[in-house]
Sequence to fold (359 residues):
Amino acid sequence: MSPLFTPITAGAITLPNRIAMAPLTRARAGRTHIPNALMAEHYAQRAGAGLLIAEATMVSADASAFTGEPGIFDEACVAGWKGVTDAVHAKGGRIALQLWHPGRAAHSLLDGGRQPVSSSDRAIQGDTIHTPDGPKPYEVPRRLDVTELPGIVDLFVEGAKRAIRAGFDGVQIHGAHGYLIDQFLRDSVNDRTDGYGGSIENRARLLLEIVDAVSAEVGAGRVSVRISPLVAYNDIRDSQPVALVEYVARELDARGIGFLEIRHGDQSLPEEQAVGAAARRSFRGPLFLNGGFDAVSAAEAIASGRGDVIVFGKPFISNPDLVDRLRTNAPLAEVDFSTLYSPGPKGYTDYPALDAVTA
Fold:
């Protein structure tokens, strides 16, 4: 039997298989940012995954980068997510919530006129953001004062507490893809000269403060972290990605978190494999790998010890029964990219399971 279908314990969560669903922003929560019955159906359809990691979720009502992403910033959000977690648990699934602040990837037209914030005043270059007034250049962010950073930590703590009340089995702290925490981690954005800039230790300080504070509230075994040291999305890079991963992974290992996820651009590239190897050396807990895997390469990565769980993104969009399809080597349905962010069920809950296709 493929190692993909063996159980594993990640902190406080036992996974029946080693196939996780990536946090995939689908913008179905609408302008209220409150999760709904359509989202509950979507996640329940995919409950066969060893773990569902729910999409990037706003820890603050004024921290939006997409129209329609969900939030976890008030009790209405808790009630909405409770419908999702109940539906997943009724199908025997497990689900964690990804806690997220976009930082400079937000826009004032999405956030009540508020200027985006970041580690520095460097704007995202070479891209536009979709707003209610159409595509716009990214704005110059406001540099967060050091006195404001405890408030950022508190946003993640309160979000984590609400997530557990909403029935999630755990939380993931989004430290990847050029969003706020990553804007502190990587040195192409972070040019600070205080205790949160300069050295790797300083740039990782905010992430680790968030991990410590969230762990103190919900337990380290229910906390995970995602980082993407080589993913250039949102105009971000780092001059020493391997060293950054080694330090962050070592510090997270010492804190005993549930798991660490490495988001690769393409896991087959030598530079991405070097980053993954650095994480494997420094983090002794379950290591989740994400980025361009298929059934064969996923099984090989687990069998060789490179990783412990493989996270699939796009295949889960169009294959709600992905685990069964991988188990039986069945063909995979293709994604309709035109419906990724459109409202309603089309391209969201209407992808059929294989047994419906072949009936």
Observations:
- Residues 3-358 form a domain with the TIM Barrel fold (CATH 3.20.20.70).
- Residues 149-165 form the longest helix (17 residues).
- The first strand starts at residue 8 and ends at 10.
